[in-house]
Structure prediction request, 146 residues.
Amino acid sequence: LLESGMSGFWRGWFMIWAISIVIFGLIVAGGAFEATSGPIKLIFDKLHGPSPALFDPALRFSLGVMGGVTIGWAVTLWVLVRAACDLGQGAREMWNAITAGMIAWFVIDSSLSIATGFGLNVVPNALLFVMYPIGLMGSGALRKSA
Prediction:
């Protein structure tokens, strides 16, 4: 175990979690340009929305911004998780804040995905969402000291 009490396995788990968000952000940001939009076009196609995505300037702008925000979110989450790991037992408020942010993201993103005809987006959302509590519970981050 590391000084914070969180094993290297669980730190690695959270790092993979954050990296997966960065990768998705890069894919989304890639939609801003035709030359790099292949992966996000494939995602849109697999989500079986109500109509094919029209990659006009407004969508490309939105994808670029959303990709940047997603990457920034992932970096922030990774820094917060590392800081919480380092704080050990004194990090409950940080874990609570991360949890609140994850719940807010999941509920809003998934609800709007369903409402706009892209309900299949809930599946990758759920996978990303579930990785967080698995890491939180598995790492023992919220266990009280004996």
In short: Residues 57-87 form the longest helix (31 residues). The chain is about 70% helix and 0% strand. The mean pLDDT is 91.
